[in-house]
Amino acid sequence: MNLSAYITKMIMQICPIEGLSMGASDDKSTWRFSFASDATSEQKQAAQDYIDNLVLDASLMETIRKIDRDQKFSSDLLYNKNYKDYLLTNPGVTFSEFMDYLETLL
Question: 40 and 65: one domain?
Fold first, then answer.
């Protein structure tokens, strides 16, 4: 998942859109939405507020990296088996937390 895909996913939870165009990924003033025809004014404003308040920093990029990692490995049978085994002694741990733990071992 890249920044554009992440932003699109987050915005679609707030407001129906048909797409997002990012001129420069580090310059939010170059980003443009194609709102769906059924998007309300309130939804459009909420989407713009989300973008206005979004902080483009290392933390966001790390979040995107982890989402990508988790999506990549969540369908892998070996990782799923090891995750289920890990849950036996660590109940309630999410798959992402399990993957964070594995990264500490590397």
Answer: no
State whether 43 and 73 are in the same domain: no
Report how far residue 39's alpha carbon sits from residue 14's, in angstroms, rounded to the nearest whole number: 10
Cβ(41)–Cβ(10) below 8 Å? no
Same domain, 92 and 62: yes
pLDDT tens-digit map of 50-90? 999 999 899 999 999 999 899 889 888 888 899 999 999 99
pTM greater than the 0.85 cutoff: no
- Domain boundary residue, one of 12, 29, 54: 54
CA distance 56 to 34: 21
